[in-house]
Design goal:
The protein is α/β, with parallel strands linked by helices and 235 residues long. The chain has helices spanning 19-27, 35-45, 60-71, 88-101, 118-125, 136-145, 161-167, 170-176, 193-202; strands at residues 2-4, 7-9, 50-53, 81-84, 109-112, 131-134, 155-158, 183-188, 208-210, 219-223, 228-232. Helix 5 links the parallel strand 5 and strand 6. Helix 2 (35-45) runs parallel beside helix 3 (60-71), helix 3 (60-71) crosses helix 4 (88-101) and helix 8 packs parallel to helix 9.
Length: 235
Amino acid sequence: MCGIGGIIFLKFNELGLEEDLLKAIKRSGFEEATPIQKATIPLVLAGIDVIGQAQTGTGKTAAFGLPILQHVDVKEEHIQAIVVSPTRELAIQTQEELYRLGKDKRAKVQVVYGGADIRRQIKLLKHVPQILVGTPGRLLDHINRKTVDLSHVKTLVLDEADEMLDMGFLEQLSKTFRKKDRRCFFPQRCQRQSAQSAKNSCMNRKLSISRQKSLRPIWSISISSKRANMKNSIS
């Protein structure tokens, strides 16, 4: 057991997750959270902005997806969270996993991406989801067409933000989604100096979860295969 800032990192059934989510986790065959999940889930549940850095296959989708699903109000037919993915394949995969984890809660999750009929997507978006996953270009297209309403979005995830920097979308997305009271999570595989200003424009508080020292962290958490080493490194 370990803690940071009064928040304790525990197993899935001790992380404060709703029973509907725990049922979905158990049905998926997971019992113990990975280091990135143990470290981030309590923080995102608490409304803290997070920069999460870990390798592919370490469970980053569940790390941000479970807190998003917990925060979603299924009685409200508004888009409450947006997940931006760099590729069509990742967007589809993320939507499928969030749908599976949110099935017992009856959360609506939709995906939009380029290369598909936008008219069909517009029609489907009339059945407003609580969570919208999409590629950056297609999401911006829908925003410009006003076929999605951002006014109720409380959580933004830029998945593999370093990849979106390469694609030239990160700064535009951070400006589009900038809002003072919006929770932000930036899962990525590496830390980039040129991405920091775009992140800072969207985040209220900065927390870095990484395998190496971050540039300007509030907390630096080094994720290893066995444990998370944490230290306060305010700069």
